[in-house]
User: Fold these one by one.
Assistant:
Number 1:
Amino acid sequence: MAPGHPRSATRMVPKLCWTSGSALPAPRQAPRPAPRPAPRPAPRPSGPAAHDRRVRHHRRRHEVKARGFFNIFKQDSKDDGGGDDPDPSFTWSKDVSVDEVVIMQWKDENDSSGKEYNIVYRNGGPVDAAGVEVLCDKIDWPRRPQEKLDKALRNSYLVAAVTLEEPGCPPEARRLIGTARCTSDGAFNATIWDLIVDPEFQGLGLGKALMELLVRSLLKRDISNITLYADSAVVPFYKRLGFDVDPEGIKGMFFKFGV
């Protein structure tokens, strides 16, 4: 029997008996079989190959033309078939320049002009706090004072941005659709914060691209002890990128103000 299929219920039919001189008893109703449970949906395929299939499907819907971005990261790729294990195809090399990378080309299917845009990753440049707040609002993150957010961005070690833009457009015409930042001592340790992708562009692998390119930027600077904080719902996403929860029993601790 295939896994996930309900077991067939056995129909029990009782034997009826009748003796001379007695009234014929009313026929007993056979017990109704137990209702069959709804079949379980097939588990969602996991692993790099399944992820690439979903990305290709999404690209076809939005007429996205990839520029070989995923080939940068999938040298000697294999389908590990796992969900939460680190992807063995990742090779965190320091040799890929990541200050500016065209991730893919994108065409709005609702735009009759057929205009194509680039989706570009950059780090090291200024990121507008107001644009970050717009992204936070779209994913229902609580608002923070904009002057403090601007200060956090300016004082971060690296701020990465993913923008939607026409080729050759000026910086003020770029639309911010993803961002992440990290703090660091510049030598040993770095912590990644505030990974955000515009919901309109989720499903294209941009969150994964942001993380991979930001980690490469840190490795180029010889910083390899990289940490982050994550909600439980997104822990599997970070595990697939090679992060681990409480490695060697190390616990993250938070100071409780006012206690």
Note: The first strand starts at residue 65 and ends at 66.
Number 2:
Amino acid sequence: FMDQNFLGSLCKTSHDLGLAVSIITNGSRITKRWMDQYGHFVDILGVSVDSFNSKTNAAIGRGGDVNNKHAERMFRARDMCAEHGIIFKMNTVVCSLNWKEDMTEQVKKLDPKRWKVFQVLVLEGENSGKTGDLRDARPLVVTNDQYWNFVHYHQGQLPQLIPESNDVMQNSYLLLDEKMRFLDSSGGRKVPSESILTVGVSDALKQCGFDEDMFYLRGGVYDWHRERAP
């Protein structure tokens, strides 16, 4: 949502081509005006919620200081999705600061159609703490046991929970950055392809390390399209 007009035009063009349009956002820049203008072209909106505790969000780096309203923004985003008939989903990254948190009641209130639960992933060049990295996520790393403890605690009460550990998630997504380049994470760092605006999608796809088999294995194909009035 950094460039709202560009995002809106991408959504409209993709919708007009018959594609399902899915957006993942932290919810901070969603506006009623944007939703009124472009919401019709969006099938799914996913929000990132790593905690419902403002202090934990601040420590993780979401929402600003300890008085942040990150969790409250998620409910506003959910309500706007309901108003525009957009499928609402939620993403959570399990880390050392939230793996013991009980999110059951809050997730039930948000009622996302899908709740993706990821494991914090350290990638060189982005969050490994080395020179030039944006941040150091090493203190946030959890063990596999801690990750699965979080999953198993919530899974029985929240059937929409979909666990995706690092082994499943790392290479099974196609990610585009702000320059419309696919990001290849297969080597432990995010390496950008050439821009699809320059070389086209087919050539850029050859540079992205995408694991198609794992994409299908993790249930990547489901009913992406929302219902629309004729």
Note: The first strand starts at residue 22 and ends at 25.
Number 3:
Amino acid sequence: MNLFGVLSPSPPSLATAFVSPKLSTILPKPRPTSSSSCSISRQHPRVPILYASETNDMLLPHYTSKSVLSWLQKMETSYKLERGEELMDAILREDTTSAEYLDNNNDSPLIQLATICAKTTLPIASHDFLRDPDGVAIYNYGNHAFLRGFGYPWEEFVVLPSKYCVESEEDMQERQQLLDSVKANAIAKSEGDNVDETEMASNYDNLIRIRKDKKKILLRGVNLWNVYDVPAEDDAKGTSEELIRTKIEEGEMKAIGQAVWIKNVDYLD
């Protein structure tokens, strides 16, 4: 849906960053991009290009950086708020092979989540609204499966405005309406209003998006949720889920991004 072209040459490294005062985490600065396109790929007869920085036999340092761990914690808590289940449980249910990555019981729960998210065969990605003065959504996370399908290395992907996953201006508008509806439905549910879950799910299915090489892909089983600026675990002691929900309802705690995991991705070209 919202997720997921040719990028500008020589993308900035992750060393080029700024500190978000709200998150107190380091996020890469975006740079202007030319008309771009993107993809997600999981089931494809051809072998996708693998970047050296995105192999599955090791967990690259950026997946356990302080900023990424902080964001994953917000993703996880926000998923529980909106979906009523743990993100880890959802991934393990949909991708039973993910359990093999939990072979080190000495890892903290957050490191285990980072490992599962990075290595699952389910494409997972997110964007934030924090780095552009106009609130344009820019990717800030993509796991191995997502990046392999897109054909992007991490350094390019995390400065890419996510609107370049669609082909035309009209498609961009439709995509934005879909993203806005996710925000609106979350607010409605938190206020106790009835939300047609079946209709919501149908809106997130059979979405056509564009890869970096401009080939079209079909997304099915798209699970999109809002990411809120929830406090880190160490800062949240005594903060109940009910209190967080109240802050969301009253507008005190707003969505600062959105995240997605996807069941199936098929190539159309």
Note: The radius of gyration is 18 Å.
